[in-house]
Amino acid sequence: xxxxxxxxxxxxxxxxxxxxxxxxxxxxxxxxxxxxxxxxxxxxxxxxxxxxxxxxxxxxxxxxxxxxxxxxxxxxxxxxxxxxxxxxxxxxxxxxxxxxxxxxxxxxxxxxxxxxxxxxxxxxxxxxxxxxxxxxxxxxxxxxxxxxxxxxxxxxxxxxxxxxxxxxxxxxxxxxxxxxxxxxxxxxxxxxxxxxxxxxxxxxxxxxxxxxxxxxxxxxxxxxxxxxxxxxxxxxxxxxxxxxxxxxxxxxxxxxxxxxxxxxxxxxxxxxxxxxxxxxxxxxxxxxxxxxxxxxxxxxxxxxxxxxxxxxxxxxxxxxxxxxxxxxxxxxxxxxxxxxxxxxxxxxxxxxxxxxxxxxxxxxxxxxxxxxxxxxxxxxxxxxxxxxxxxxxxxxxxxxxxxxxxxxxxxxxxxxxxxxxxxxxxxxxxxxxxxxxxxxxxxxxxxxxxxxxxxxxxxxxxxxxxxxxxxxxxxxxxxxxxxxxxxxxxxxxxxxxxxxxxxxxxxxxxxxxxxxx
Amino acid sequence: xxxxxxxxxxxxxxxxxxxxxxxxxxxxxxxxxxxxxxxxxxxxxxxxxxxxxxxxxxxxxxxxxxxxxxxxxxxxxxxx
Lengths: 517, 80
Known about the structure:
The complex is a heterodimer.
Chain A: H1 14-25, E1 31-35, E2 38-45, E3 50-52, H2 53-66, E4 70-73, E5 79-81, H3 89-99, E6 102-103, H4 138-148, E7 163-166, E8 180-186, E9 192-198, E10 210-211, E11 214-215, H5 221-235, H6 246-253, H7 255-266, E12 271-272, E13 288-290, E14 296-301, E15 307-309, H8 310-323, E16 327-330, E17 336-342, H9 346-355, E18 369-371, H10 374-377, H11 384-399, E19 410-413, E20 427-436, E21 439-448, E22 460-467, H12 468-485, H13 492-498, H14 501-508
Parallel strand pairs in A: 7-8, 18-19, 19-20
Antiparallel strand pairs in A: 1-2, 2-5, 2-6, 3-16, 4-5, 4-15, 8-9, 9-10, 11-12, 13-14, 14-17, 16-17, 20-21, 21-22
Helix pairs in contact in A: 2-3, 2-8, 11-12, 12-14
Chain B: E1 10-13, H1 21-32, E2 38-43, H2 46-58, E3 63-70, E4 73-79
Parallel strand pairs in B: 1-2
Antiparallel strand pairs in B: 2-4, 3-4
Helix pairs in contact in B: 1-2
C-alpha cells in the first residue's frame, strides 16, 4: 500500500496487514463481472494448459469452496471460477498458491491505459506427445512464464499482452491473433527454432498478426520476449485505452521498423528465415490421436464452452490416472486432453467417457466450437453457451450424418470484444439486441468465412441483427447450401469467399426443408 | 491509535491495486476506526470504486460518498 498522508492519523495494524497483501498483490487478483449474481471471478493461469491430476483435484475443491462447484476452461487455457466472495479472496489466494498457480492481474478494470500484464502464454496442448510436432516448446514456454510471474516492473503495460509459444504444426494456439507468437519451424539448414509473428489481436477492430520472417534459436525466446514487452511498456501508446493494445503500436511502427529494432537490440540472434512455415490446415487436436510414444494415444474431450463442475473434474482426474498419465491438458478450444492412454484400452475408456456424457464420435465441430461467458461478464445479451448448444442440437437433428462432412469452426461471442474469437471463425456469432414486434430481444450478427488455420482470414459480416431464436435456421440454410453447392473438396471458407455478402445472405434466408437432403 | 476520536480523516492510498485489494484495505481500516471517525480512500481501480462503497453501506457506515479528484483517481469518504 502507498504511504498514508502525513496529515492523517495513523492506522496501526494496517502495516502488518499490508505485508500479507503485498505478498499476493503481484501474483493474484480478482476480475470484475456482473452476471449470474457473480461480482468477481478468479482466472487461474495454467501455463501451456498442462496440470497434474492432483492440481485438477485441488482446483475442483477450490471451485466447490469458492465458486459454487462450477468452473470453465477459457480460450487461453485458464480455469476460471465465478462467484468469488471478495472477503474470502485472500483465503482463495493462499489455496491457489499451494496448488502452484497464479492468476491474471485483470488490470482491464482500470479506466486508463495502465496496469496491463502478460496473460497466460498459450502453448500446444499436445506438446511433447504429438507425433507431428516440430519440437516440444513447452519447456521454453514455462521458462518465459516463470520470468514474468510476480515482477511488478512488467505489470504496468499499456494493456494486456497476449502470446503463444508452440512447436506444433497445427494452428492450435492461433498465432495470428496474438500480440507476439513464437512458431516452431525448421530452418533451411535443418536447425529447429522459432519464427515470429506480431501485431495480431481481435476485439472490435481485429487485426491479423504479420509474419516477421525471422528465425531465432529456442533458448533466445525469453530474451526476445523481454525485449518486446519492455518496448511495449516503455514506448507503447498510453493516451487512449481503446488504442493502447500492442497491435496498434505494431501497426504504427510497421513490420520493417519492428524487425529492425529487434535486430538492433538482439544482434546476431535474429536471423532471416529462409523457409516457409508449413502449417497443417487443422486447428484443434480433434478426437483420438496417436502419440509419439509407442502404444500411447491422447484423447481430446469436446467440452462445449469449457464448462466443468467439481464432480466432473474429480471424475476426469480419476479416469486420467486409471487409464493414462496423472495429468490433463487444456486446449485453446476449451477442451480437455487425457494423455498417455494405452491404445488397447481405448474401447473401455470410451465406454466410461460416454457415461460422463462424452461422445468421441460425431462431427468435428464439436471440438472446434467455442463460446464466451457472456452470461457472467454482463456485456452479453444472453447465455451464449446455452444458445450455441441449442444451435448445435438443432443442426444435428436436421442434418444428421451430413454434419460429419463439415470441417468448420463455430464461435459465439456475447459482444464485439470477441472473447470467443468469432471474427476468425468459419461461422461467427456476435451478440447484439434486435427490435422485434416493438420489443428488444437478444440477437446475433453473423460473420462467415473467417479462418484460423492455413492462410488465416477475418470473416465478413453477412447479416446484422438476426433474432437469437432464428439463428439456427439461418445457419442451417447456409450450411445446407454449402453442402449442396460446394465444388469438390472446397472448404467452407473458400465457399464463402466465392460468393458476395448479398448472395450468402440470400442463402441464409432460404426456406430449407427441401434442401437438406 | 489514540483513545480520542480523531477529527481528521484517516487516509489510505491504494492507487495501483486492483480488486480485491482496495476492499481488503478498507475492510481492515474500518475495523480499526471508532464510530464517527472518517476514512478517506484514494484509488484508481474503477470496479473497486463501486465495490468499496457497497461494502461500507452494507456494513452500517453512516455516510459514504465519492468524488473524482484527478485523472482516473477517486476519493471515497466514509464516516463510520
